[in-house]
Amino acid sequence: MTVRFEAEWCHHELGPYRDCAATYERYPFDTLPPLDPAGFTGAFDWLGGLSGEPVPDTEAAELAELERAVAGLGLALPADFLAYHRDGRLLRSLDEVAPAGNWTDFSAPLPSPVEPGAYLVRFFRDQQDCVLWYLYLRPGGESFVVHSWLDYEGQFELVAEGEEPDEDLADPAAIRWCAASFEEFAHRYWVESRIFLDFANGDGPTDPRLLAYLAHYAAQQPGS
Description:
The chain contains six helices and eight strands. The protein has helices at residues 57-71, 79-85, 93-97, 152-160, 182-201, 208-218, and strands at 8-11, 25-28, 103-104, 110-111, 119-125, 132-137, 143-148, 176-179. Strands 3, 4, 5, 6, 7 and 8 form a six-stranded antiparallel beta sheet that branches.
């Protein structure tokens, strides 16, 4: 059974262009600026491209361990995910712009509680676990990015210890689709975080790429 997840993006306000009722808000995906999939080739050109610089030994070992665990399940990590996390210059690019102190943090592959044969791999989390981002891996090679307010790793640990989970883990509504690929997720997260920080620290963005993203919202404002 293939589950179709609700599509929502979770992030912060964008200055006067988009409101946010709390630290985060979930925005219907069809309200976001569209992105051209052709721009996401795994080369990360919008971040200056792959540098070929090595990552620290600890990070390299963590990624290799995760890759082996996923392969042992007959699955594979997406090529763009591997390219980003193997590049010493790109690594932590999302951590560095995260407005709420989010950071890269891998989980072991976790069985999807809503779809037999599929697995979740957490790769990024809010510092207070308000939201966690996962790769969603399906048999046959399909992968995409989802987010949830549930720390599935922690919830499965509770179950293993004989305790009740905090919520119904079999509820697919707790998982929201947010990007067709890791690079697409990284791009939107990086752009929106840069916009948020530019407004928080000054008068707003001047980078043409960020202004082009905001043009989608500007066109919807009264009098535009």
